[in-house]
Structure formats: C-alpha cells, structure tokens
Specification:
about 425 residues, about 20% helix, 9-stranded mixed beta sheet, alpha+beta, globular
Length: about 425
C-alpha cells in the first residue's frame, strides 16, 4: 500500500504532493532523498527501491522529473514501481509530454488522474482509455469553458460502463463506421562497440503497438513467425496468458485506440546497420581527429536521421571540425553533434579537424565515446516477423495493417 506520491523537478523542488492514506507523510522525506541523491549521484540513480530511516521509497525518472512514492508497510516492490510507470505514461499521454512547466500548468488534471488511478493506497483504474472517459484531456475548448463557467473540473458526471465490465480496459457498446486495426513493431537497438571495433553488446528492446478501432467486443489472435527469439516478454492486461504459454500465441480483447500490446527483448544480435570508425592522434598540445561513418549491413531500407555525437574531453579548449556531408555543431556543453541525415550514394561521410588542448597538456588522456542515432522505417532489425492476425466477433469485415521501424537506443562506439 502506497502512502504518498511526490513529483520532484530536476532541481529537487516538490512540484506535486499527493497523500493517499490517512497517515500523512511529511515532506521532509523529499529533502532526505535529495540530499542522498546529491551525495551519491551514481549509486542512487540506478536504485528503484531505497530504504530511508522511516520509509521505503520507490523512484522512477522520466524527462528530468522524479516520481517518488513512499510507504511504511510491507508491499511488493514491483507494484510500486509499475504503478509509477503507469502514472508517468498516463500523464505523458494526457499532457502531450512531460516537463516541469506542463505539470505546473495542468496540476488540476494531474490531481484528478491520481484520484482515479489509486484508492486508499491501492491501484484502481490505470487504463488510459477508461480514464479518458472519466477525465477529459486538456484542450483549448475545455480551458475556455472553465474560464466562462468557473468550473475547473474535468471529471465526468457518469461512471464509464467498462468499470463494472469483465473487460475493464474496453469501453462498452463501441460502434465504428469503419473497422480497422493496425499493428506496429517499434524497436530500439542498444549497441556497444569497443575501441578495437569489436561488437561487445547488441540487443533490441521492442514494443508491439496496436491501434484498434473495432465495433462491439472483438476477439483477436496474433501469432509470430519466429516467436522463439523473444525474451523478457511483458503483456498488456488484456492478453490471455495460457495461449501464449502453451502455443506462443497472443489472444486478447483489445482496448479501443492506441495501446501497447506487449514488450520484448531480443539478445545477442551480431549484425549492426552502421559502422563508425574514429581515429585520433595527439602530440604537442593538439589532437587530429577523423571519423568515418557508413553502412555496415544493409537493412534493405533507407537509414534516415543519422546523427553522431560525442562530448569533447575536459582537456580540450577549442575545436575546429568540418565534414564532407551534413553539418557539425559544437554546443555550449562541449557536445559535438554531426547531423548526417541520409547516407549519400556517391561518397562516405567523413568528419575531420583539430582539437586544441589546454596549456600544459601534450596528449589527449581521455578519449571520447561516440553516440550514434538513426531511424529505419519498414524493417524490424531483430528479425521478428508477424505471422497472422485473426479477428472474431466482428459485425463487419475489418481492414488490417502492419508496420515496423527500428531506431537507435544506446548505440555507443568507443575510441
């Protein structure tokens, strides 16, 4: 049972406090947490559960905002962490993103959502589709009406029928003029390449997203051509676990609209789409740098939005960098960003230049790590393929669509 939730800005300021039970949690717990975060920045950042002298704390960080929950009683830690993740996802969906200004501008809606999502410390309604029927998302019309009428509440007067249904994630008596359902595979590739060019790590974190607009209460079955490659799968509550356990088939009654059906991980991949070859040589207070980027394994689709970034080492006082394709910018925090876009057909993108070291420093002691970004539409680099999507209990035939995309997650090349 959670007793309190705090939202902290990246400066430690308490932006929002929500007491969940009769026992009031003092705000001083946030001061203790922030002092520990400052004194132990590396170790505390990776901890999701922290024991204070008086409470157990659960934390997640999204877009610079820390979601902090407190309890003094025994409870499953994953319940607290999962609930905070649901809160962050719902707020991001409602408010169109997460940042300090958005939270402060819409604190009434944030409080209303927390009132519906948790009851006396226990999670209650966390499905976004049902919450939208209960609390209207902010828009210009609702803000104008609140000014004119003086009514600042966005809570509906009637309780959605789905709250008493056997499928609480789906609104009852849905009717659509056109029935359609779309499946989207969204993958992020995490890669580490060491200074010798050897692939140390390559794995993919993926999501199966669905956008469903189907009438009635449809029953769907989704199968994959190669489900054996999947690891660490997590499902939306609508998925029936037994068909997956026995046959690795997803059987479910979908929510209406866009939702995440499942997440997965594919480990120990050997093929990466892009290579980055950095060369650095330093002497007499200067460092020559040359970086080449190209296609290592052609995915069969165009590689877009290619960006290479690295932080200039502390001993570098100035830099003069140019490229034969794209643009190079050095930001105020000493981050060098090379925007390549799409690879040209007639040449290999190359960036070169000189780094001037601080006075008294002859050679570069700390070499930079290169972060690579890219996006590939129309292909899932994990190799996951959708086999078949069957739809039952539909009054009319439905249109089905499939799409895939892969982008870079933590893609590092060390020099």
């Amino acid at each position: 049972m959670l007793q309190c939730i705090f939202l902290l800005s990246d400066s430690g300021e308490v932006m929002l406090e929500k007491q969940l039970t009769g026992h009031r949690v003092d705000r001083s717990i946030c001061a203790w947490f922030w002092e520990q975060s400052i004194s132990q920045p590396d170790s505390l950042k990776v901890l999701s559960v922290i024991a204070s002298p008086t409470h157990y704390l659960f934390q997640i960080v999204r877009e610079g905002i820390t979601f902090l929950a407190c309890t003094q009683v025994e409870m499953p830690p994953l319940m607290g962490i999962e609930f905070l993740c649901r809160v962050a996802d719902v707020l991001s969906d409602y408010l169109g993103g997460l940042n300090e200004d958005v939270i402060k501008d819409n604190f009434v809606i944030v409080y209303e959502l927390l009132d519906e999502m948790i009851d006396n410390g226990f999670p209650l309604t966390t499905e976004p589709n049902i919450l939208r029927d209960m609390i209207s998302p902010p828009n210009i019309v609702s803000k104008m009406l609140s000014v004119v009428t003086g009514n600042t509440s966005n809570v509906s007067d009637t309780l959605p029928g789905a709250t008493s249904s056997c499928v609480p994630w789906r609104t009852t008596q849905l009717k659509h003029a056109n029935n359609d359902v779309y499946v989207n595979l969204v993958e992020e590739m995490d890669t580490i390449v060491n200074s010798d060019g050897v692939l140390v790590k390559c794995e993919i974190f993926g999501l199966v997203e669905m956008n469903s607009h189907l009438s009635g209460i449809p029953d769907l079955t989704l199968s994959f051509a190669n489900p054996s490659i999947l690891n660490d799968v997590q499902f939306h509550p609508c998925v029936r676990f037994r068909p997956w356990e026995s046959e690795q088939i997803l059987s479910f009654v979908p929510p209406d609209g866009l939702f995440k059906l499942m997440s997965y991980r594919v480990k120990k991949l050997r093929n990466i789409p892009i290579y980055v070859k950095p060369q650095l040589s330093s002497e007499s207070g200067t460092c020559r740098i040359n970086v080449m980027v190209g296609i290592r394994n052609d995915p069969g689709k165009a590689i877009d939005s290619v960006v290479v970034e690295f932080r200039l080492p502390p001993s570098v006082s100035s830099a003069n960098l140019t490229s034969n394709h794209g643009t190079v910018n050095i930001l105020a925090d000493k981050t060098c960003s090379w925007s390549i876009g799409r690879f040209p057909k007639d040449k290999t993108p190359q960036m070169s230049g000189t780094l001037v070291l601080e006075e008294g420093v002859e050679k570069l002691q700390v070499k930079p790590t290169f972060q690579v970004g890219f996006k590939i539409m129309g292909v899932a680099l994990s190799g996951l393929k959708i086999g078949k999507l069957d739809l039952k209990n539909l009054p009319n035939p439905a249109h089905k669509g499939f799409r895939a995309q892969t982008e870079a997650g933590l893609y590092e090349v060390r020099s």
